[in-house]
Design brief:
The protein is α+β, with helices and mostly antiparallel strands. It has twelve helices and nine strands.
Amino acid sequence: MSAIDRVVRLVSLVFIATTGLAVAISGRFTSFESAIYLLLAAATIAVVIARVLLPPALLGRTHRVVQASGAIGVVTALVVLSGGAGSPFVLGYFVIVAAAALSSEDVAPAVVAIFASLAYLLVAAIMPSSEGLNTAVVAEAGFNVAALGLLAYIATVVGGQQRRAREAALRLARFDPLTGLYTRHFLYSAIEREIGRAARTGRGFCLLMLDLDDLKKVNDTHGHPVGDRIIRGVGEVIRRSVRESDLAARYGGDEFVVVLPETDSIGAFTVASKLRADVAALVLRHDTGTIQTSISAGLVCHPEGGATLEQLMATVDAAMYESKRLGKDRIVGPVAASDAGAGTGNGEAGNAGARDTNAGDSGAASKVDLGRFGSPV
């Protein structure tokens, strides 16, 4: 439930409570006091059901119009029981219109304002004030209808601006403006969800951390706008290369993280290899020629590489920096021992499942001591 929905629910309950209190204190409505209390009790139950218990998806996109129509019915009945057009509770129509305009969009506020106006005019025609249906009463009714329309318009404009500001803030919190990938904050939430899902299903996942090689040299030589173009281009390569079920985020300045749900180390290594090749094939044309880049990648799997978010991020970060230390443009992380091949290297016993692949090995595996980056899966 959104903040505005909670406010509407609170206002509805406060209106009902103050109405009951006004009826009890004023003593003006003794003839229909019991009926008014029953109406308010039914309205309270309806608010709890509609705003708390009933899922909004059950009524679809029209749920707010349906709820507003019910509120109009309650206010109309209250006005009828408390004296017709001269009832002090006519203000309830204004509350409904304002709430609908603030919590809805499209044509919903206008529809609610029309229904509220028609209900009010019907009551004013059937049950005018004690003065009868004279010019003053008609003028007052016309003024109230015009006020309802103006209130709907003003509240719609204000509500629309608030919604756009809120959506913009959420978009900034969720998406990186340069690459369009997810932000670090959203990434952390996604990894926490994946850890919970893995605990329930018993199926793990893998993380890739990618860092652009020598971007500082590009920034120093050609300027930061060119560096931004490279970051944006690599972000587009990542977006095209991952599955819809995967999640790619810009982790820092030139660092990216990819979450691969229900993927083992071999599958993750395949994805990382494709990303590495696609980034290497990326060519940025510049005034002084062309610029190409490469990535150093760290790979880690859950739960072998860490049981918590902090452990996983520390492990994949260490793997990525190890790939930098080993010469850049390579992938470091655990893969299945059967996939590591029989290549020779400097790996110690028990670490044969860790793989380091660089651009010049033509697919051959070179084992290194990477046991701290997670056990082979």
